[in-house]
Write a structure and sequence with these properties.
With about 220 residues, this protein is α/β, with parallel strands linked by helices. It is about 50% helix and about 15% strand. It has 10 helices and 5 strands, in the order E-H-E-H-E-H-E-H-E-H-H-H-H-H-H. The chain has a 5-stranded parallel beta sheet with strand order 2-1-3-4-5, sandwiched between helices. The longest helix is centred in the C-terminal third of the chain and has 14 residues. The protein is globular, with a radius of gyration of 17 Å. About 40% of the residues are buried.
């Protein structure tokens, strides 16, 4: 059973999402909150698998709530998906750095919404190529030296290669095809890289790849 927390200051939107989720046999809505502070409290109480959190809310916004969830060891199993009206807006990079596993636009079709919840619950990042490109345009275009202690030196050459492909928005199956390995081996490379770089999830692994200089526009 996938446990979901809804955090949005629009009651009608929460009701709509809940109605969709309640129809699914494998999904349970464990709580609703109207602001980030209340959402953080409910996340600590219910330990959901997925927290759907609006970016802009009163009291505490979604990015700050996400940051606090990511910083709390007891909430390490909570995968945050940001809800936004704006798509690829200026909040994308900040939210991913805060610990978001991905994004959903509020006018998403029901089938895609339900699929996204299940993807997030598995621990996979909701990083479309458009979001990857947004990160490059906003952050990577300016060369930066690799920060000391980034952990990159601990990665094997194959792990580096896998991370580079992940940072381009490729799935494990696509990475496997590029590297001519099995999907399970590709997943192993990614998981080991996440451990070595202390990345909370795949989305943060991608951000770290950008910040460290492992991925640059020349990589593509």
């Amino acid at each position: 059973m996938i446990r979901v927390l809804l955090v949005d200051d629009q009651p009608l939107l929460r009701s709509g999402f809940r109605a969709l989720l309640d129809l699914e046999d494998d999904i349970e809505v464990v709580g609703e909150a109207a602001d980030g502070e209340e959402g953080l409290a409910l996340a600590s109480k219910h330990l959901p698998d997925v927290a759907l959190i609006d970016i802009q809310m009163p009291v505490m916004d979604g990015i700050e709530a996400t940051r606090r969830i990511a910083a709390e060891p007891a909430l390490s199993g909570v995968h945050v998906v940001m809800l936004t009206n704006y798509g690829m807006d200026e909040y994308v990079f900040d939210a991913l750095r805060a610990g978001a596993a991905g994004f959903l636009v509020k006018d998403i079709v029901p089938e895609d919404f339900l699929h996204a919840v299940r993807v997030a619950a598995r621990g996979d990042a909701l990083l479309a190529p458009a979001i990857t490109r947004k990160l490059i345009d906003r952050y990577v275009m300016q060369p930066r030296p690799t920060p000391a202690g980034s952990g990159l030196e601990e990665l094997t050459s194959r792990e580096r290669e896998a991370v580079t492909f992940a940072a381009q928005g490729l799935s494990n199956d696509e990475i496997a095809g590029r590297m001519v390995i099995s999907p399970s081996t590709a997943k192993t490379h990614i998981n080991r890289a996440m451990t070595k770089l202390n990345a909370r999830d795949r989305a943060q692994l991608v951000v770290l790849a950008y910040e460290s200089g492992l991925v640059t526009p020349r990589t593509f």
